Amino acid sequence: MYGIGVMSGTSLDGLDIVMIDLKLYDEKKEIHIVASDMVDYGIYFKRKLSEICHENTATISKITMMNAYLGKFIGEHINAFINRHNVDKNLISFISSHGQTIFHEPVGGTEFYEIPSTLQIGDISYISELTGLPVIGDFRTADMAAGGQGAPLLSYFDFVFLQDERVGRAIQNIGGIGNVTYLPPSGSGEVISFDTGPGNVLLDRAVQILTDGQKNFDDDGLIASKGEVRYEIIEKWLKHPYYSMPLPKTTGRELYTEDYLNDCLKLMGNYSVEDRIATLTAYTVQTIKRSYESYLPMDELKEIYINGGGSLNSCLMQLLKEAFPHIKVSRLDEIGVPGVWKEAIGFAIFGYNTMLGIPNQLPIATGAKREVVMGKVAFSDGNPWKRFERLRGEYSGESIIN
Ligand SMILES: Nc1ncnc2c1ncn2[C@@H]1O[C@H](COP(=O)(O)OP(=O)(O)OP(=O)(O)O)[C@@H](O)[C@H]1O
Ligand SMILES: CC(=O)N[C@H]1[C@@H]2OC[C@@H](O2)[C@@H](O)[C@@H]1O[C@H](C)C(=O)O
């Protein structure tokens, strides 16, 4: 039996789809990836998504239409994924989809709306109708309703699977936004997790602007590696109040907007393209370094593992190693979890918990008042749900449906 996890993150680059072996997970809590693919959104689709992530270009009709369009897009691509990998659909128990975050306001809204809110779109009923499978989605709202920030959710996954017995570890995601989970040695201290600031969000857009749309991102950090980092500018950027806010805290594209980037580019007006890209790359690194120094027990921190697309940028990785000369810095893959698939794997596991009614978030990380079972389920056909119940019945001797 298999479960599918789908992640569409803040970099708006595409869908990460993974299929994991549920029997192995159910019996031994082992994660085995059966198949994985990345579906590129392409430039035009990315632009359309980006449009609805910004106040001045989003409209109610565009958001509503994109919610349906993206649900259909995800459903069709999952069907193609299943066919491409020759998997019998009867063996798939569920699909768990994060959706596309288009707005995230974790602190409290404005005027009348003094309440935290977040919205992930890509309607799960469309995915379920197209695939004939139960689909779990809309995870973050349950954590927010319980008083949490609705993020970082992968802190739960990091805590369950990646804690070490002897040393303190930081698991750093560098996607569109950066986030960290600090894991103290097992049995000592508490997990600390928050968004560190920009991951690739500013960098990607700067590359697009400065190469006149010829490149979407700095592949392997090749542009940045030819430039010189201007640390004096970074010092100015680090004065932004987000970096000194108390925990819990999370952020998103709402802070790192086009206007924010234009201000950064203006400040670097006469620098070469390479220097500007190098400086933005180092900005991501410095937000990580400074926030670790502010919020993590540095004497206990011995290992940093990087996941997300940023781990494929050699220049970024090199700058991180230089920023933490006395700490081991490597890719997450080194400890057995493929860094680019971690979030999609995580959502497959979250979906499994939702189906079983097991809490799947870490209140200490998100700030929620209590543990909750996140996720809502759409199922257009009851049979796959019953298959899931049989999996549990057969392998664990437990039944969840009477
Ligand atoms: N080969 C590469 N070299 C350099 N950077 C890369 C490479 N491949 C991907 N990236 C960067 O990683 C980004 C995508 O990362 P990822 O898929 O982890 O983000 P995400 O999941 O969308 O974001 P988030 O984790 O914030 O939700 C790309 O936009 C690009 O900037
Ligand atoms: C609201 C939202 O989508 N937040 C994302 C974003 O991308 C990275 C960072 O900001 C993180 O806090 C979160 O995603 C990951 C998957 C998380 O919740 O762990």
TrEMBL record:
Top class in the EC scheme: transferase
Recorded catalytic activity of this chain's protein: 1,6-anhydro-N-acetyl-beta-muramate + ATP + H2O = N-acetyl-D-muramate 6-phosphate + ADP + H(+)
Pathway: Amino-sugar metabolism; 1,6-anhydro-N-acetylmuramate degradation; Cell wall biogenesis; peptidoglycan recycling
CDD domains for the chain: ASKHA_NBD_ANMK (cd24050)
Domain of life: Bacteria
Record-listed E.C. numbers: 2.7.1.170
A Pfam entry, by short name: AnmK
Keyword tags: ATP-binding, Carbohydrate metabolism, Kinase, Nucleotide-binding, Transferase
Chain positions recorded as ATP binding sites: 9-16
GO MF terms held by the record: kinase activity
PANTHER family, A to Z: ANHYDRO-N-ACETYLMURAMIC ACID KINASE (PTHR30605)
Record-stated family: Belongs to the anhydro-N-acetylmuramic acid kinase family.
Function description: Catalyzes the specific phosphorylation of 1,6-anhydro-N-acetylmuramic acid (anhMurNAc) with the simultaneous cleavage of the 1,6-anhydro ring, generating MurNAc-6-P. Is required for the utilization of anhMurNAc either imported from the medium or derived from its own cell wall murein, and thus plays a role in cell wall recycling.
Entries under NCBIfam families matching the protein: PRK09585.3-2 (NF007148)
Record's protein name: Anhydro-N-acetylmuramic acid kinase
UniProt source species: Solibacillus faecavium
